[in-house]
Design brief:
Blueprint lengths: L1 E5 L6 H13 L4 E5 L15 H11 L4 E7 L6 H14 L4 E5 L6 H4 L8 H20 L2 E5 L4 E6 L12 E4 L3 H10 L2 E4 L11 H21 L8 E5 L11 H13 L4 E5 L11 H12 L3
Parallel strand pairs: 1-2, 1-10, 2-3, 3-4, 4-7, 7-8, 8-9, 9-10
Antiparallel strand pairs: 5-6
Helix pairs in contact: 1-2, 2-3, 3-5, 5-6, 6-7
Length: 294
């Protein structure tokens, strides 16, 4: 199993830079930050942009994967996002992972005056979002008009062409999103029950995770893809909490998640208060024991 850590973009860079360096030094395989204009419980506190944060993180690290959780159609346009992604990926020497999600209702959906969409409309929009983002990154020359997006005479450089484009990590719990993950993604992302923040014990979430793994494997098979080629990434501390409450809990969670088919476990850097309150030493101890960290 590979391990990652989420660093909320809440600190001034002189503080945040040390966290990103530490994540790499501890041996984590990838480090992530959230892509929101405002975010949930911290909407009234300082909160920095994900793209500048990842750009800065690329300059203070050398080998760790750098990811965003997750870019959504709530305030992103695929063409503009594509340009930013390839720029950050160039600065990071090919280490960027682009997380993508359909975009839940909330601050990001309403702050720019976007329409109030139902679940089906969000799924329709997400399909258009992922398909256009992939087309721009791979083909470069795109002209496409849909209900959701206009890309008029795009001539995009650099482009992936026949080379692999930067990897997508598609967050999905339903069949349409899983189909997108099977077709376009290197990673499928879940936190368990969608938009559920009750922080229950992992054992209560595992049955749903098993079903989700079966669902995304079936989506791969329908797409003619070997399910083993799709990494399955679990983001902890949302629906399932307590994983970093102790070294033993962290170890037990990693083992249980690996047993049901998860390939990657991502936790949050423990904070002094909620959300994600915890002891930083647990993260350090786990890394030193299992990741070869300093």
């Amino acid at each position: 199993m590979k391990h990652g850590i989420v660093l909320l973009p809440e600190h001034e860079w002189k503080v945040a830079a040390e966290r990103w360096r530490a994540a790499e030094q501890l041996g984590y395989h990838h480090a992530w930050t959230y892509d929101h204009l405002m975010w949930r419980w911290l909407a009234d506190r300082q909160w920095y942009g994900s793209i500048p944060t990842l750009t800065a993180a690329a300059t203070v690290t050398n080998s760790i994967g750098l990811g965003m959780l997750v870019a959504t159609p709530n305030f992103r346009h695929p063409v503009a996002l594509a340009k930013e992604l390839v720029t950050v990926d160039d600065i990071a020497s090919g280490r960027l992972i682009c997380g993508l999600g359909s975009g839940a209702p909330g601050f990001d959906a309403s702050v720019l005056g976007g329409p109030d969409l139902g679940a089906k409309e969000r799924a329709d929009r997400f399909e258009a979002f992922v398909e256009l983002l992939d087309a721009v990154l791979v083909r470069g020359s795109v002209t496409k008009v849909s209900r959701w997006y206009t890309a008029a005479g795009v001539d995009f450089h650099p482009r992936a062409g026949d080379a692999p484009r930067l990897p997508f990590a598609v967050a999905a719990t339903g069949p349409r999103g899983m189909a997108l993950a099977a077709e376009f993604a290197r990673y499928w992302v879940t936190s368990g029950p969608p938009n559920d923040f009750r922080m229950r014990p992992l054992r209560e979430v595992v049955p749903m995770l098993r079903n989700q793994v079966r669902g995304v494997d079936a989506a791969c098979e329908r797409a003619g893809r070997d399910p083993a080629t799709l990494n399955k990434l679990f983001v902890a501390d949302a629906a399932a909490g307590g994983i970093t409450s102790s070294l033993a809990a962290y170890e037990d969670a990693a083992g249980e998640l690996a047993e049901i088919g998860m390939t990657d476990l991502v936790v949050h850097w423990p904070r002094h208060d909620q959300p994600y309150q915890g002891d930083e030493q647990v993260v350090v101890d786990f890394a030193e024991k299992h990741l070869g960290g300093e």
